[in-house]
Design brief:
Elements: E1 3-6, H1 8-24, H2 28-47, E2 53-54, E3 66-70, E4 73-80, E5 83-91, H3 96-102
Parallel strand pairs: 1-5
Antiparallel strand pairs: 2-3, 3-4, 4-5
Helix pairs in contact: 1-2
């Protein structure tokens, strides 16, 4: 069974996604469903680390960056030493290059 680690920024992203749906939209059921669906993808990526699309030119600090869709979000991750490191979980419509420069 593969392993994955969730970075602090990715944890904050998940909390923000939950808060948006639960508080801003007033729909806790959707918040739970969406964050669980995203989290389930982490385990899938641990088993299939190359399933995501390579993004080698997107972030210099993460030359092995990959992305994988989950709901309306993208899981940004890298694989190192057989471990999937979840870096961010962002809405698919966000400006990825700009967001990664800000990190």
């Amino acid at each position: 069974m593969g392993r994955y680690l969730i970075s602090d920024p990715a944890r904050r992203d998940l909390r923000s996604i939950y808060r948006f749906f639960a508080v801003d939209c007033g729909n806790e059921a959707s918040a739970i469903r969406i964050t669980e669906a995203i989290s389930e993808r982490f385990a899938f990526l641990a088993e299939h680390p190359r399933a995501g699309r390579a993004k080698p030119n997107l972030a210099l600090q993460h030359p092995e960056l990959r992305s994988f869709p989950a709901e309306d979000y993208l899981i940004l991750y890298e694989v190192a030493g057989g471990v999937v490191r979840i870096l961010r979980v962002i809405h698919a419509r966000r400006d990825l290059p700009r967001l990664l420069i800000e990190d």
